Amino acid sequence: MNRRLFHLMNIRGLLLSSALLASCAVGPDYEMPTKELEASFKNAGFTTPPPEGSWWVLYRDGDLNKLIKQADLKGQGVRSALARYDGARAQLGLAKAETYPALVGDAFANRQQDSANTNFSGGSYDDYRAALNLSWEIDLWGRIRRDIGRVSAENEAVGYDYQGVILSLRGEVTRAYLSLRFADAEIALLARTETLRRDARNLMQKRFKLGANSRIDFERSVTEHESVKAELGELRARRGNFENALAVLTGKSAAGFQLKSTGKLPQIPTAPSAVPSDLLRRRPDLAAAERRLAAASETIGLAIASYLPRVTLNGAGGVRSLSSSDLIDSGSKLWRLGPELELPLFQGGRAISDKAKAEAGYREALGIYRGKLLNAIRETEDALGDSRYLAGTSASRKRGASAANSAARLTRKRYTSGVTDYFEVVDAERTALSEERAALSVDLARALASTRLIQALGGGWTR
Length: 463
What we know:
The protein is built from eight helices and four strands, in the order αααββαααββαα. The protein has helices spanning 3-21, 62-74, 76-97, 143-210, 215-249, 284-305, 350-416, 422-456; strands at residues 102-113, 124-138, 310-321, 333-342.
């Protein structure tokens, strides 16, 4: 057996041994937390079936559907998050590239002269070379695989971050739109009230001039009219703020953005009959935290493997000659192939510190994950409770508003008949207005609670 054959057999043996060693990876294998979620939510007690489809269509409002689409296309936060996701995917590609051999070509043509005070003092000469150089790290301890696992988990986390930005943006658009439409309804209510108060003021002024009313009744009518006018102005200003917010959220200038009143309110979706807690796992923020926990787990193995012996297979093949015409000659061929061993001997405690740092990072990521999970459960319970109890509150408020309006009409008739004074009219009308506004406020709270529940469950109640 000649020396060359013996050398090749040694290399093959090394590759086979390396392949067997590379089948294992140091460090703990990640296991996703499975016992963190409760079986169900205490506030889930509804009887209607869960709705399906894109969650914003549950409000049955065409303008809202258009605004969501515009926000998805032009929202600046979405574009920034998408750019971060693209960068994370590129980083994953870089990590995966480490599993393949690196092949680099080089070529040069030099005219040179060595120093006369060395062994190479033969004067000037030419030097030509063209070769391919191979380098491939054999992943003995799973360092490369752990790094790919880490970067892959980080990439998935950034992807969930992107989904979270979209969910958050859609939620903000929906909340701003709902607030605007309920402000429209309240403005319409106050506008009708302002008309009634203006008519009453004019009537009181005429009656006062004729001596049929006291000055006190007239001044009360002025006070009530001006009070409603002031509230109407404040409400219109608040409505303008919601409109401006929608402009920014949909990537438009507030100066040219306008939403006209439609005279109708969006439908308030009914919460589902049951909400399995496992749905929380698809929440983008919770899913991102779980993926970062997985990345932290991979970092432990990566820290261990970084201080273990590293074997790299190096090789080169090509031609080299002192004359360009001899490059194609068989005698100009060159090649080399063999392993290179990097053996850390003394690191001053770096290996222990790196492992301890990685383990601390994992515990931190686990704490963050559990914290986000508990917060997700709380948000879901809050939204479920609000949806459940505000439904009953809304019914009571509407019955109260209806009764208050009837009382106001009867009081006004009594006043016209001379049975009571104007103070009772003012008090009854003020109560009726307050009850109607309270009913609108409760329905707005119900609508906003439904949006919070949808977001708390990661975008709806179906898997």
